[in-house]
């Protein structure tokens, strides 16, 4: 920590009036110290991170941050604003601004250091001391830990009490209850990577604690006695709780929730031992500590690792934000469950489904519905890719009549190409047969965890049987998940809990889902599916071209995100049969062609106008050639994250053109994936490549034009050729605008 901040990186009279100006002012100090090599490129990375989610926290804290290739070493700059600067926090402007710059390859030691700083920032006395620091050297010493915050607080007229005072405890609860997420990552995002190192400081800074926190690690209480001031009655053993905290970044809310639970435990006279499952690894709690615990709290946004260790104890399972915002309520809830003798069963998850664990428990129904559907789609896609490519290879080897070949069980000749083609085709057809059941099964899984799998798969299989297809699978998955959740809410005797997950839940839920699919909703859905298929088969001329343009826009809108996946799933559902219609194959061709445009265009743009891109982007451009050619739209994400207002609209324009041309040319595709590697399997391949080339050309031209229109800042190192030689390596001359 001693090298992370110096007095030269502190501005106690920050005069900026916007968050962009504040970031620039602090970043300029980093450039002057040689910590940042390209001011504009670094600020573009900061802006890209800020665009994902505001970095303001309740309590007057702003934490702009990013991981960047322009950073030479872990650096923290601090600014104090008298007027306050809006960083998007719910309670108003921030007066304490921390700009965190992490190198692109920060190691685990760096993450641990930042986790320790995160806990420091949760101390109310520490933030008070920063607000009253008289000079830059004193503020830097406080942040480094060279000067105790209590001493600084006394010097400023504060209190030296380290956390046992009532006022400090009240401050802790108030701040912890209102702190906001500064580093949440978009789903799907199963995508652009979060700055986990800087995020630890960002999220934790918003909660003020009434005591100095221990260093980050797996266990943060010794499990032997509560803190002074919260001792139990003489001769009475304190209530013991073990907890697990985790968040998508592995640092931010992980340690924030741990600190809140510890503080609430001390106030309640309860022993709380927390296992923080962070990005730098975790150390499992001692089995003896778990065995001696009276209750368990899971505060997590990602699945708890080795969760079975805690089975059989009263358990509260919530999202990580609940651990931050209402720790006292969680402790009271787990004590209540213990008093009533409510122990968890290994296979039951009454309050934490996979989707709920992957997000905020307060998310709206619409957000959860989208995540449930995406859960099914994500598990279905590998079956689509494998089955579709096998079917396509079967046609390529055995000819267009291979779907009429007899079963290879009855007729297979090792030396005949037709037999191998038939074999591949028939394996692919079997793989395709799983699409709808897998879709339905894992939608139900997203809603109700493992108990939802059986009724979900059964409902999906029924959908295939009654020709309800893709739409039927969606309905079956949602119904199955809802039925399981309803069954789990029924109170049953403890003696029957052991057979619930293996007998009762599968039996009842499958029967209900089967009845609804066969008798109630299956026939109407099958009719809707047939109507949609007939409409697609009837598309010609202008209607087909417009559909291609729409699908192209969707494929390029979020580059592998939910909208992209909707278009892709729509296309793959149409070819998920042994003999897909001509219209379905045209839609598949248009979708794949449009999805290839963004990464190929970014690769071309970094080649023809390299000076408009940073060195890191030029390296990403080399990889984007292969990713684009392989139909991996995510290859353009690094460019879109750094410059979304230029890259995304340009990509959508090129994708729409490609989709429209592909439909207009009548190109067809039976394989759901493969990019240029399945061109021999495409109908009208030359025109298909022309459509892709046209879209790539349009996107490249627009990106180059839009980037060329911006004016470099006079403060940029690029404005001073002499300074540029020392500030940036060769090949990184041109900055990226935020």
Could you outline the blueprint of secondary structure elements for this entry?
Blueprint: E1 10-11, H1 19-32, H2 39-52, E2 56-57, E3 61-62, E4 65-68, E5 75-85, E6 94-103, H3 108-121, H4 124-132, H5 136-144, H6 149-155, H7 166-178, H8 196-204, E7 240-246, H9 252-268, E8 271-276, H10 287-292, E9 295-300, E10 315-318, H11 320-325, H12 327-340, H13 354-357, H14 365-398, H15 417-432, H16 435-448, H17 453-465, H18 469-488, H19 500-520, H20 522-537, H21 541-557, H22 562-575, H23 582-608, H24 615-629, H25 637-642, H26 644-665, E11 668-669, E12 682-683, H27 685-709, H28 721-727
Helix pairs in contact: 1-2, 3-8, 4-6, 7-9, 8-9, 14-15, 14-16, 14-22, 16-17, 16-18, 17-18, 17-19, 18-19, 18-20, 21-22, 21-23, 21-26, 22-23, 23-24, 23-26, 23-27, 26-27
Structural class by secondary-structure content: alpha/beta
Overall residue-averaged pLDDT value: 75
Span between termini:
29 Å
Which word captures the global form?
Answer: flat
Tally the beta strands: 12
Cα-atom radius of gyration: 29 Å
Strand content: 5-15%
- Spans of at least 5 consecutive residues with low confidence: 151-230, 347-351, 358-362, 713-738
Helix content: 40-55%
Q: Sheet with the most strands?
A: 6 strands, mixed
In DSSP terms (H or I, runs of 4 or more residues), the helix count works out at 28
């Amino acid at each position: 920590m001693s090298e992370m901040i110096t007095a030269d990186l502190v501005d106690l009279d920050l005069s900026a009036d916007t968050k962009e100006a504040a970031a620039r002012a602090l970043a300029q100090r980093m450039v002057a110290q040689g910590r940042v090599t390209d001011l504009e490129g670094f600020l573009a990375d900061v802006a890209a991170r800020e665009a994902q989610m505001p970095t303001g926290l309740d309590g007057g804290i702003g934490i702009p941050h990013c991981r960047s290739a322009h950073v030479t070493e872990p650096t923290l700059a601090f600014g104090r604003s008298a007027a306050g600067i809006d960083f998007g926090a719910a309670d108003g402007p921030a007066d304490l601004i921390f700009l965190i710059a992490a190198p692109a390859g920060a190691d685990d030691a760096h993450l641990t250091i930042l986790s320790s700083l995160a806990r420091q920032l949760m101390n109310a006395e520490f933030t008070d001391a920063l607000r009253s620091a008289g000079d830059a050297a004193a503020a830097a010493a406080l942040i480094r830990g060279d000067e105790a915050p209590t001493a600084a607080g006394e010097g400023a007229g504060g209190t030296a009490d380290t956390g046992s005072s009532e006022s400090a405890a009240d401050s802790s609860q108030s701040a912890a209850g209102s702190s906001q997420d500064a580093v949440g990552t978009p789903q799907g995002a199963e995508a652009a990577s979060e700055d986990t190192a800087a995020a630890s400081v960002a999220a934790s800074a918003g909660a003020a604690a009434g005591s100095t926190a221990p260093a980050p690690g797996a266990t943060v209480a010794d499990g032997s006695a509560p803190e002074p001031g919260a001792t139990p009655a003489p001769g009475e053993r304190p209530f013991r709780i073990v907890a697990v905290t985790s968040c998508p970044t592995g640092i931010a809310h992980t340690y924030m929730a741990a600190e809140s639970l510890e503080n609430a435990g001390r106030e309640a006279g309860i022993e709380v031992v927390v296992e923080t499952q962070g990005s730098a690894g975790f150390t499992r709690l001692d089995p003896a500590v778990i065995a001696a615990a009276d209750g368990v709290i899971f505060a997590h946004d990602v699945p708890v690792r080795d969760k079975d260790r805690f089975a059989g104890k009263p358990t509260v399972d919530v999202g990580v934000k609940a651990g931050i915002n209402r720790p006292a309520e969680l402790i009271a809830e787990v004590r209540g469950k213990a008093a009533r003798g409510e122990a968890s069963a290994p296979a039951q998850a009454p309050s934490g489904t996979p989707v709920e664990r992957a997000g905020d428990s307060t998310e709206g129904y619409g957000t959860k519905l989208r995540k449930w559907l995406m859960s099914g789609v994500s598990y279905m896609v590998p079956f689509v890719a494998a089955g579709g490519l096998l079917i396509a290879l079967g046609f390529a080897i055995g000819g267009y009549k291979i779907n009429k070949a007899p079963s290879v069980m009855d007729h297979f000749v090792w030396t005949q190409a037709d037999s191998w083609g038939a074999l591949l085709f028939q394996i692919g057809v079997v793989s395709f047969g799983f699409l709808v059941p897998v879709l339905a099964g894992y939608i139900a899984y997203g809603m109700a965890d493992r108990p939802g799998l059986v009724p979900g798969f059964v409902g999906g299989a029924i959908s295939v049987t009654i020709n309800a297809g893709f739409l039927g699978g969606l309905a079956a998955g949602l119904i199955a998940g809802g039925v399981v959740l309803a069954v789990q809410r029924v109170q049953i005797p403890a003696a029957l809990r052991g057979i619930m997950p293996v007998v009762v839940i599968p039996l009842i839920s499958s029967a209900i889902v089967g009845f609804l699919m066969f008798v109630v909703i299956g026939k109407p859905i099958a009719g809707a599916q047939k109507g949609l298929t007939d409409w697609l088969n009837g598309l010609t001329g202008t209607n087909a071209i417009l559909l291609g343009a729409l699908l192209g826009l969707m494929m390029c809108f979020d580059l592998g995100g939910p909208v992209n996946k909707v278009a892709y799933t729509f296309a793959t559902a149409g070819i998920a049969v042994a003999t897909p219609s001509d219209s379905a194959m045209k839609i598949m061709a248009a979708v794949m062609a449009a999805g290839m445009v963004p990464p190929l265009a970014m690769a071309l743009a970094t080649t023809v106008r390299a000076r408009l891109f940073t060195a890191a982007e030029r390296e990403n451009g080399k990889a984007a050639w292969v990713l684009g050619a392989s139909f991996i739209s995510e290859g353009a994400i690094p460019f879109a994250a750094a410059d979304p207002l230029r890259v995304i609209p340009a990509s959508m324009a090129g994708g729409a053109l490609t989709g429209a041309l592909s439909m207009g040319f009548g190109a067809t595709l039976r394989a759901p994936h493969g990019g240029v590697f399945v061109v021999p399997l495409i109908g009208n391949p030359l025109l298909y490549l022309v459509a892709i080339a046209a879209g790539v050309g349009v996107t490249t031209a627009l990106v180059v034009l839009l980037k060329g229109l911006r004016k470099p800042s006079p403060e940029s190192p690029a404005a001073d050729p002499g300074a540029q030689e020392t500030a940036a390596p060769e090949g990184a001359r041109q900055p990226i605008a935020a």
